[in-house]
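Chain X:
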Amino acid sequence: MKIVRFRHRGSTLEGEVLDPKTLRTPNGSRVPLADAKLLAPCEPTKLVCVGRNYADHAAELGNPVPEEPLLFLKPPSAVIASGEEISYPEYSRLLHFEGELAVVISERCKNVPAHEAPHVIRGYTAMNDVTARDAQRADQQWTRGKCFDTSAPLGPWLETELDLLDVAIRTTVNGTRRQEGSTRDLVFRVPHLVAYASRVMTLEPGDVIATGTPAGVGELRIGDTVEVEVEGVGVLCNTVVRGSSEAAIG
């Protein structure tokens, strides 16, 4: 089942994707996808991201493969939905895409054994771990490079059933394939990641574990349209726009 969050006629709803053009609301009515505004498929308290979880990606950036999962966090303010705009940070000159499979947690949990991980997973979606690579390198830690607003596009919806052994992950920019990998090449598999993260911190409903990106990451420019496709889930699509340093909070 594909679970979708969307706005329709002033209401925020959670429904089901019936086919590529139709959604079904909780009361059973049908809504054309074209008439709905897609929202991020979950509302996380945090996004637990995994770095260097594909050996080929670690190699392309000149990094060793970690002996244990390398975790970092993104805040909820980084999340945007498919169709929304990625804002190019004004302090960066090198923005990268990183297409990933993301896991969404179903319930509050702590110290989950790996064999019980499927019981605390609500579903799977696509994520783009957008990264200001120059800021990441300059700071020698990842907050400014990874946590800016709009740096975590998620969507388009949740797939509740997915065979994780060999899921293709593809990223295209302006229609050109730039990245292709498979979950068969994960260094640390999803159950291990859920168990490991839940030993470190309590996971809440809607929290995200982003499982890492395969090789092929590359540059995004203002005006680019970037799509992350997770096989069996769907296509996450966002366009890059110029960021603003003006205050937006009044």
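Chain Y:
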Amino acid sequence: MFDSIYSATVTTSQFFLMAAAALLSGLVYAWILSFRVRSTRRFFTVAAIIPFVVAAVITFVNGNIGAGVAVGGAFGLIRFRSAQGSADEIAAILIAMGSGIAFGMGYLAYGVIILVCMAVIFLLLSLLPIFEHRSAGADQLLKITIPESLEYNGTFDDTFAHYLRKVETAGVKTTGMGSMFRLSYKIQMKDTREEKAFIDELRTKNGNLEISIVPYTEQLKEL
């Protein structure tokens, strides 16, 4: 059961058996992940078919060093052209690729175990109250748009000191064709009930331009 199904040469029946195992377990894997990872439908579709795609590549390479180098370059190009995902998405893709290698070498049972077991572990770890920090749940991302003419260093310090328990600069970028700046801060409110008063006071200093407060995430895709 745990031996490779491949012989010296890969037959048509062996390949289709591998394809069926990889695709079915990939679908189960993506379905279980959908309960934990917050992403798009396209991401789960890709996660479901990656095990088969990687397995097919490994099957066709089959010891050919030149083909292996070419495939590695192709994978590197795809990664270079892909947008960076969240930690959950990156882990999900790595698990799918790992199982695909097992499938591609003919170890169907190991490939299924990797996918299903890791998906279940992923789900269980997300449900258990471990690795959680109470302070992390209170972290928010504050974005303040200011006119180009406003000197932002120190402008909001007194407001921050009054309303915030913690504040860290997360980034600065220009916007509006360079006519405005967008300041980003990682913050913790002293009292969440004062959020409106906090925003109102900031509005008096930034010329009533856009201000937003959203949950702080690991990946700041847009500062």
